[in-house]
Design a protein that fits this description.
The chain is mostly helical. Helix 2 packs across helix 3. The longest helix is centred in the first third of the chain and has 12 residues. The termini are close together.
Length: about 60
């Protein structure tokens, strides 16, 4: 299983040049929540993991495990 910091690095990489607020709005969450996932401060719940993986067209395993 990846550490929260590793997951955060993956999420930042997937977001690329898109703005934090833009992606958070598309995911239906606050930008602060997405930022906390990207910095490794918090880990998303399973339902959010599914939503994030689907948004980036990746598997949950690719990003979180």
């Amino acid at each position: 299983m990846k550490t929260p910091k590793e997951v955060g690095e993956i999420l930042r990489g997937l977001r690329g040049e898109r703005g934090l607020k833009e992606v958070a709005a598309e995911l239906g969450m606050s930008w602060r929540t997405l930022q906390s996932y990207e910095t490794g401060v918090r880990s998303p719940r399973d339902t959010k993991k599914e939503q994030i993986a689907k948004y980036y067209k990746k598997t949950i395993t690719d990003i979180f495990f």
